[in-house]
Amino acid sequence: MDINPAILDRLLSAEIASGHYFDRPTGYHRCLFCQAGFEEGRIHPHGEALFTAAKAADLHVEQEHGGAFNALLNCGKTQTGISATQAALLSRLNSGESDRRVAEALQISVSTVRNHRFQLRRKAREAKVFLAVMNLFTEHKTRDQDFLELPATLTVSDERTQISVSEAEEIRKKYLATEPGLHLRRFPKKEKLKLVLLLEVARLFETGKRYSEPEVNRILRPVYEDYGTIRRYLVDYGLLKRTASGSEYWRES
After folding, report:
1. Is 223 within 8 Å of 204 (Cβ atoms)?
2. How far apart are the C-alpha atoms of 80 and 88, rounded to whole Å?
3. Alpha-carbon span 239 to 251, nearest angstrom
4. 39 forms bridges with which residues in the sheet?
5. Which of 81, 167, 172, 244 is deepest in the core (most CB within 10 A)?
6. Consecutive 10-residue runs of the chain (253 residues): their mean pLDDT?
7. What element of type H or E holds 45?
8. What H or E segment, with its residue span, contains residue 201?
9. What is the DSSP string of 106-133?
């Protein structure tokens, strides 16, 4: 299970640890792991009880994902930096097992368990210092170093999303005409270039408003002659959501 890096980039560690966050543009508390949403200001039923959106999100993370601790561990080494053995060790220690019980379960020595614990504490200290360094660094970065902010609903998190602000500006200048309205001069083959342009097209839709397919087509028709392709890419990249029947479309963020 991977968490969208665009979401992680803008969250505090406390929000990540809770397993959910408040998505201000949409007014929803969203699950970090599956994006399930709970609207702020509404009462959410759960069994015979009623809960606020934040509490409903807490219950969702606990019941659907086994709690934030386990769900974060399940994100894997690429996001946690923790090996499978260390993840298993942490899971067992967190449930209250002794070093000896953990060693028996994982078929390693007690001294190995204690060494892992020492290394994990060291890694935690390093992470704190590294985070402080990066926070200081971002205060002085240039536009060439500043990456484009991407919506949390984006379905990809690979090299296509590594776009600097200045790079995005050049792509827009090359492929977009804005007078009298937004229009693509052509739709490039490279996915990274497409993504920058699709982000601009997605802004034609109001956040949270529901659109029928004919309404979506009407908005996209002036943008590009093959508006069906643009509509499909918007959905594939998560920039527009769509019901299973395709009868309604909407933009979440």
Report:
1. yes
2. 13
3. 6
4. 28
5. 167
6. 78 91 88 91 91 95 95 89 92 94 94 95 94 76 66 80 88 89 92 94 90 96 95 94 92 82
7. strand 44-46
8. helix 191-202
9. HT--HHHHHHHHHHHHHHHHHHHHHHHH
Vertex 101 angle, CA 99 and 107, to 5°:
95
Instruction: List, by residue range, all CATH 1.10.10 domains of the chain.
Output: 84-140
For residue 199, give the nearest of 217, 179, 215, 175 by alpha carbon.
Answer: 175
For 149: left if phi > 0, alpha if psi spans -120 to 50, otherwise beta; the answer is beta
Query: Which residues sit opposite 241 in a β-bridge?
Result: 250
The structure's pTM equals 0.63
Class of domain 84-140: mainly alpha
| Residue 27 φ then ψ, to 5° | 75, 25
